[in-house]
Amino acid sequence: ISEAAKRPTLPQERLRRSTLQSVLRNGSVPEWFHGIITRKTAEELLMVKPPGYFLVRVSESRVGYTLSYR
């Protein structure tokens, strides 16, 4: 395995890969996936949605994703 393959990827790199895979499969990004947005923006988006609505975004503080819901 190359050194590059051993290094963990940044969330943005993973996002690009997973988004690209979704776009290639379906032609679009899922409605619930909002990519790189802040927690505040997620909260503002959810305030105008009905209870039960959710979104997934790239985490600001950890490697990975965050599920936000109302």
From TrEMBL:
What sequence ranges are listed for the domain SH2?
32-70
| InterPro entries noted in UniProt | SH2 (IPR000980), SH2_dom_sf (IPR036860)
Single GO cellular component annotation?
A: cytoplasm
Q: Which UniProt keywords are listed?
A: SH2 domain
Signal peptide range = none
Q: Which Pfam families match?
A: SH2 (PF00017)
> What is this protein's name?
SH2 domain-containing protein
The species is Fundulus heteroclitus
